[in-house]
């Protein structure tokens, strides 16, 4: 049961009206119920002034939260820094300076900070999107910013529920230290494609990663070249039971981890934080193939795979070989 106060929701979205309405709508039995309420409140009950208040709670891309932003919500300020970590880590001196200049141009034209779901996006990706949106009319950009805010809110709600779940687990451990949790093997969704070195019984050794733990690239087989400009998103499943078969009904839900766009080499930007130990679980990587090729057969392609406890230190590369009427994938290295 998700029981949160106004301050918690203010960290997810900087609109006071939004936070108050979420408290009135709660408590929520699960994350998905909270997201549905949040969408209704944000788009149907919060007015433009509330939107602007939420936008103002965000620092400019590449900048640290101000003192007033930290005072309003320390969790929001902390999450903002984490969500921008990929952009900051990928910035060069020249790209960072260009980002500062475009931040100023955008703010001068629209009167709001440039808002984007920054998690997993590089500086160059964010710059490209900012330049693309700069030509929009203010009313159009306001609507886009509101959509991006909703994506950020959903991500932060998932973090809020995760924090509560972790706290609950710790409390149960303290009260019942004699209980030993036995983790059984879960059914692999596409295990045949994701056979790993860990299954041979070799012990995993801790390493410092030089690339994100989950990566992808897309090849356009029809063109014989990399597929640039395809939107990619990565999600992880949360639920008591894994979605082991499409014929079963499920009580869980997918939680967004990050989004990106394939570059000229067909490779996506960072979709997930650079961590040594990847969270075990079932992941879904989706490609907006319909937007890339409207005449193709697939409006989108989703690949579901499992990361087991024994595979947390490994690298998962999930490429997509795409043609207008077929696609294939395999476990890469």
From TrEMBL:
Residue stretches of biased makeup (Low complexity): 64-80
Cleavable signal peptide: none
Start and end residues of each stretch annotated as Disordered: 61-84
Keyword terms, alphabetized: Decarboxylase, Hydrolase, Lyase, Purine metabolism
Functional pathway: Purine metabolism; urate degradation; (S)-allantoin from urate: step 3/3
Oxo-4-hydroxy-4-carboxy-5-ureidoimidazoline decarboxylase domain residues: 9-157
Every Transthyretin/hydroxyisourate hydrolase domain range: 214-332
Reaction(s) catalysed by this chain's protein: 5-hydroxy-2-oxo-4-ureido-2,5-dihydro-1H-imidazole-5-carboxylate + H(+) = (S)-allantoin + CO2; 5-hydroxyisourate + H2O = 5-hydroxy-2-oxo-4-ureido-2,5-dihydro-1H-imidazole-5-carboxylate + H(+)
PROSITE patterns (UniProt xref): TRANSTHYRETIN_1 (PS00768), TRANSTHYRETIN_2 (PS00769)
Record's GO cellular component terms: peroxisome
Binding site for substrate: 217, 267, 330
Pfam families reported in the protein's UniProt record: OHCU_decarbox, Transthyretin
Database matches in InterPro entries: Hydroxyisourate_hydrolase (IPR014306), OHCU_decarboxylase (IPR018020), OHCU_decarboxylase_sf (IPR036778), Thyroxine_BS (IPR023418), Transthyretin/HIU_hydrolase (IPR000895), Transthyretin/HIU_hydrolase_d (IPR023416), Transthyretin/HIU_hydrolase_sf (IPR036817), Transthyretin_CS (IPR023419)
Gene Ontology biological process: purine nucleobase metabolic process; urate catabolic process
GO molecular function term, any single one: 2-oxo-4-hydroxy-4-carboxy-5-ureidoimidazoline decarboxylase activity
Protein name, UniProt field: Uric acid degradation bifunctional protein TTL-like isoform X2
């Amino acid at each position: 049961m998700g029981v949160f106060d106004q301050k918690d929701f203010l960290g997810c979205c900087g609109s006071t009206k939004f936070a108050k309405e979420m408290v009135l709508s709660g408590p929520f039995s699960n994350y998905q119920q909270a997201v549905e309420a949040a969408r209704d409140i944000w788009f149907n009950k919060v007015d433009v002034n509330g939107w602007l208040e939420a936008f103002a709670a965000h620092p400019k891309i590449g900048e640290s939260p101000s003192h007033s932003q930290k005072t309003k919500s320390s969790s929001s300020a902390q999450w903002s820094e984490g969500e921008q970590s990929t952009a900051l880590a990928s910035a060069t001196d020249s790209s960072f300076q260009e980002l500062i200049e475009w931040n100023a141009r955008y703010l001068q034209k629209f009167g709001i900070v440039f808002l984007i779901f920054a998690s997993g996006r590089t500086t160059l990706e964010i710059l490209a999107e900012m330049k693309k949106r700069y030509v929009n009319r203010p009313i159009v950009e306001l609507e886009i910013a509101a959509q991006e805010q909703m994506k950020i809110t959903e991500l932060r709600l998932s973090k809020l529920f995760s924090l509560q779940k972790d706290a609950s687990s710790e409390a149960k451990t303290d009260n019942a230290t004699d209980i030993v949790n036995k983790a059984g093997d879960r059914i692999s969704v596409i295990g045949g494609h994701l056979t790993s070195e860990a299954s041979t019984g070799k012990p995993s050794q801790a390493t410092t990663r030089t690339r994100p733990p989950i990566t992808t690239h897309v090849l356009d087989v029809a063109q014989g070249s990399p597929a640039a400009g395809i939107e990619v998103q990565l999600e992880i499943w949360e639920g008591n039971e894994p979605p082991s078969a499409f014929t079963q009904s499920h009580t869980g839900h997918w939680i967004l981890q990050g989004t990106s766009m394939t570059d000229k080499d067909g490779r996506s930007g960072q979709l997930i934080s650079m961590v040594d130990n990847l969270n075990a679980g079932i992941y879904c990587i989706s490609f907006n193939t319909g937007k890339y090729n409207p005449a193709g057969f697939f409006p989108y392609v989703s690949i579901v795979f499992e990361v087991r406890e024994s595979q947390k230190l490994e690298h998962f590369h999930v490429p997509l070989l795409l043609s207008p009427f077929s696609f294939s994938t395999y476990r890469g290295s």
